[in-house]
What does this fold into?
Amino acid sequence: MHDHNLVESFPTHFILVEQRVVKDRSGAPVEGLHNLWITLNNPSELNSYTTDMLKEIILALRAASNDRAAVAVVLTGAGSRAFCAGGNTREYAEVYAGNPGEYRQYMRLFNDMVTAVLQCDKPVICRVNGMRVGGGQEVGMACDFSVASDLAVFSQAGPRHGSAPDGGSTDFLPLFVGMERAMASGTLGEPWSAHRFYWLGGLTQIVPALKVDGKWRPNPLVVTDRVLDEYGRLSIGEAKTGDQRAQGKLLLAKGSVDLTLLDEAVDALSTNLLYTMPDCLTKTIESLRKHKLEHWDRNRETNRAWLSLNMMTEARAGFRAFHYGSKEQREVDFILLRRRLAEGVPWSDELIEEIAPWTAQAAGTSKP
It folds into this structure.
C-alpha cells in the first residue's frame, strides 16, 4: 500500500496527536483499530489557534483521513476550561491588525482547516471540554458530532470585537438553529449554555461535568428542566437569576470539574460508529456534510477577502481593544465610534486611540 500523506512526518508543538483505543460493545479494546485524538494544546490562552497551530491541525486531519486503522477522529482541547476560544487575540493584535495582506494568508490557513474537517475521510467528533467561542464555535460546527460538558458555553463575539462570524458561523448556524436564533447569536454574541444549544439542535449529547461530594450535578447556573416562565415561554438552558445564580456559583466553587462522563460518551459514540459498514458510513457522512459545504464553499473566499480588508478598520481597533484591555474593559466606545463615523471622521490611529485609549498606551504609541 502507498503512503498518501502530504508529508512523511511533521512536528506537533501546538497540538497533541494520539492513537487511543476504540472499544467493542463489551468495553474491551479492539486490537488493530483506534481512534485518532487531535488536542489543541494552548490551555493558557484558552486553546486559541495560532498560525502555527493551524498548520499542524491541517496536516493532522489529512493524516487522520489516510489512517486506515482509525475509526473516528476526536477533536478537542487541553484542560477543562475551553475547547477553543477562536483565533489567538495576542497574534491578531500584535501581527495582523493593520496588515490585511498578511491576514489574508492567515485566513487561507483557517479556511483550509475548516475544509479539512468537512472533507475528512473519518467521522469527526468534537469533544467539547469547555467554552466553544468565536472561531472555536465555527470549527466545532464543522465537525460531524459534538459531545459536550454541560458546563460549556457557546457563542460568537465578532461584531463586538471588530469582526463578523464569517469563518463558518454565518454558514452553519442557520442550519443548526434556524434563521432567527442564528441572527441573534451572530449579531449579539450572547452565550448559550450547553443545555440551551442542545435543546436548539446544536449538539449530539451533553453530560454532567460537575462533581460535588462525589455526586454528579447538572450545571447549577442554568435551568435544566422544561419549565414555563411567567410569560408562558418555555425556559430550558436559560441562565438563572438572582439568588439562584448566586447559589449555583457557590455549588460550582464547592465542586470540581470531572470529564470522565464526557470521555465515556465519546467512547460510546465511537463504539456505535465502529459497528457500521465503513464505506457506507463515510458516504452517509459525506452526503450530510454537503448541506454545510454548499454554504461554506459558496462564501469562504469572499468572506476571507472581506475579513482581511476589515483588519484596516474595525478589526484593527476591536482586536487591539480586546487584547490590551482589562477584564472589565475590552470593548471600544461604540457610541463615540458611531458618532465620529457619522461626522465623516476617517479611520486612523487617532480614531482608534480616541475610542480605546488603552490600546495606544499598551503598544507604547500614545502621544505625549
Summary: The first helix runs from residue 51 to 65. Residues 221-256 form one domain. The chain has a mean pLDDT of 93.
